[in-house]
Design a protein that fits this description.
By secondary structure, the chain is of the alpha/beta class. The chain has nine helices and five strands, in the order E-H-H-H-H-H-E-H-E-E-H-E-H-H. A five-stranded parallel sheet has the order 3-2-1-4-5, with helices on one face. Helix 6 links the parallel strand 2 and strand 3. The chain is globular and about 50 Å long.
Length: 193
């Protein structure tokens, strides 16, 4: 029996990129504990233009981002989105072929570091998957379903059933961890029932 394939985005779907970046900027560690400073940054996050949300020039945010990758913090450390690991194991147990697809290859290079950090984080966090792709065009990969936080990454003709994962930048409000957990469980219920 051929398994159904599901594409799963990483950042803001499985890996909490916004928290990791905020924690790195505030404390130099993507997995730093929550502090008032990190909470203040998270409360300001509303759009993909997080540099504007945080009141810093794009170049400064990019500098922190690159530094975090170089220091094996961004993508290598940082928290999971609440409920992601459990839901992915439920999908794997239901014979879904999980294909992690992320657009992490940045214009500032460090592709080898990003690839190693990504695979290491997935292993360290016990995230099940059968394939890992780092690409900028997810429309090139066919699947039966896709979970992503960016609607422009999804196409029902290519990806079957799309699930737009809730995040501040696509909902217009502050998404809470319990809402993300519930959304993951709704995905599992939809795909496994």
């Amino acid at each position: 029996m051929k398994r159904k394939v599901i594409i799963v985005d990483l950042d803001n779907v499985v890996y909490d990129f916004i928290y990791g970046l905020a924690a790195f900027i505030a404390h130099g560690h993507a997995d730093a504990p929550r502090t008032e400073e990190v909470d203040a940054m998270l409360k300001k996050y509303k759009t993909w233009g997080i540099h504007d949300d945080w009141g810093m020039p794009w170049g400064e945010l990019k500098r922190f981002w690159r530094l975090g990758v170089e220091r094996n913090q961004i993508y290598a450390k940082g928290p999971r989105i609440h409920g992601a690991r459990r839901a992915l194991w439920q999908l794997s147990d239901a014979e879904w072929d999980i294909h992690i697809v992320s657009n992490r290859l940045t214009d500032f290079g460090l592709h080898d570091t990003i690839a190693i950090s990504t695979a290491t984080w997935l292993r360290d966090n016990n995230i099940p998957y059968r394939q890992l792709s780092l690409v900028n065009d997810k429309h090139r990969i066919t699947a039966d379903a896709i979970i992503d936080d960016r609607e422009d990454n999804m196409n029902a003709d290519v990806h079957g059933q799309p699930f737009l994962f809730p995040a501040n930048h696509n909902t217009g409000f502050q998404v809470q961890p319990n809402e993300q957990y519930n959304y993951w469980q709704n995905i599992v219920k939809t795909l496994c029932d």
